Automatic annotation (TrEMBL):
<keyword id="KW-0521">NADP</keyword>
<protein>
    <submittedName>
        <fullName>Uncharacterized protein</fullName>
    </submittedName>
</protein>
<dbReference type="GO" id="GO:0004499">
    <property type="term" value="F:N,N-dimethylaniline monooxygenase activity"/>
</dbReference>
<comment type="similarity">
    <text>Belongs to the FMO family.</text>
</comment>
<dbReference type="GO" id="GO:0050661">
    <property type="term" value="F:NADP binding"/>
</dbReference>
<keyword id="KW-0285">Flavoprotein</keyword>
<dbReference type="Pfam" id="PF00743">
    <property type="entry name" value="FMO-like"/>
</dbReference>
<keyword id="KW-0274">FAD</keyword>
<keyword id="KW-0560">Oxidoreductase</keyword>
<dbReference type="InterPro" id="IPR050346">
    <property type="entry name" value="FMO-like"/>
</dbReference>
<dbReference type="InterPro" id="IPR020946">
    <property type="entry name" value="Flavin_mOase-like"/>
</dbReference>
<dbReference type="InterPro" id="IPR000960">
    <property type="entry name" value="Flavin_mOase"/>
</dbReference>
<dbReference type="InterPro" id="IPR036188">
    <property type="entry name" value="FAD/NAD-bd_sf"/>
</dbReference>
<dbReference type="GO" id="GO:0050660">
    <property type="term" value="F:flavin adenine dinucleotide binding"/>
</dbReference>
Amino acid sequence: MKNLLEVGFNVVGFDKHAYVGGLWNFNEQKDAISVLHSTVANGSKHRGCFTDFPFPDDLDIDHGTETPDFPPAADMHRYLVSYAKHFGILPRAQLNTVVHRAEWNPDTGLWDIETTTDGDPSIVRSFDKVVYSMGPDQIPNIPSIPGLDLFEGEAAHSIAFKRPEEWTGKRVLVVGFGNTAADVACELAGTAEKVYLSHRNGSIVVGQSDINLHNFGFLGTATNHKSQLPRWVDNKPVDHIRTYRKGVFLDQLSRYAPGIWTKLMNKVILGLRDKLYDLKPEWGFDPAPSVNQARPIISDYLVDLLSREQINSMPPIQQITSAQQVEFTDGTTADVDAIIWCTGYTVDYSILGKSDPTIYQESRIRSANGRKIPRLYQNLLSLEHPESLAFMGNLSFMNPAFLMFDLATMALGQVWSGRSPLPPQEEMIKAVDKQHQWIAELAAKGAVTPGLVKGADWLDWVEETAGLGMKENLGYGMQGWWFWMSNRSLCKVLMDGLLLPFHYRLFDGKRKKWDGAEEAILKVNEELRVKNETKKWQ
């Protein structure tokens, strides 16, 4: 909303909840996707913010005056509320409002949006443009298991898991092997009588570790791979190894030698995993998926709890054999009182009618949990209505989420305001076909995150479309050399200091420049220098 307001659009937002902040606000309702009380951001506050709104120094009222380097869920939600207040979004957000229909009207050339607010009668309003921002995680996915109808215990999707105390004394089977499954299993350990973790795929697992990674440090800067290293490296946040100079080099390597890059990433990340942990074969971490198509498990406690047998790793479920007994593919069985499905979600664009971008699917493409992959230009724009229909939440590559969607909406604002024209539709269709062919090749090797893009190529498109000015001023052309000669000390910080979201608002360009960007960049890098010298990290 904020980036579209900046280019002059009259924006209204609809949300079915009574609050802003989405899943970062803990919600007790069993059908609401939300964080747990124990959730902590995987990225640091320095790189995990928006491009023109740093985390306020006094945001964390629960833990002191300074927000922790890795903010807990409550701080993340407070940050989003502060952002909405600061940029005047709240008066434009219609909360407690459900959207029932958003369909293109060819007679008027507008979008008819049917909504209800607080249970009042539905109304239909017309809009010039629509941004569908519900993301891919909408409908809980429950796998089809033979004999499931025989089970008499409690079977719930992870969306309903809110507090571990609700499962006290129960024998619980957690199904899945992603971050949600790891979080749920770890939360249950010590509360449930028995915790089983059933999964069919391997995984990379990382946690908070102070292992010396200087020999690997540059590998953490690739923009088109999902795997992340531990939260801490040499007693500082791991994402602080990211610099603009390293990113440029590695983007080129990933673009022109992707095979070598993938092999190198797999070797280093798996080597790091094995150096951090003594993983037993029976836990099923191997074979691990390639790091360029699957998210790692980021958990500080999973391996330790497996070692203590407070969590028991199990093979995939073969069938349910009785009211409480589960049989696994190796023939073993377990008696359980409850099953928690940590098996992801499916996407639902049905309110868009014929404009649903997943209507036409290629059967050869299999994404995570069989989810459909929308046909979108740059994973952002409708092919049928690129001038008026966009989608947020279908982007995935190794970059902080807030930064990624901030950049996406900067580019969208320039496209829809007419300052950055789109290519002909035939060219956009070819680009989507090429993207889906790449996804199909990855899917042949295992499940793929549906929104995965080649980060280096996507950022190049954003750079040009949003008009960021970074390549011109930090490159090796005449403008870059002039900037270096005129601002040597600043240029040094921009190239070799921490790459911050504020970099993307520093230079004049098409999107709105933030006048506070330079000050914020210098301030953060100076604070980090002091912290590195004094080791005063939180």
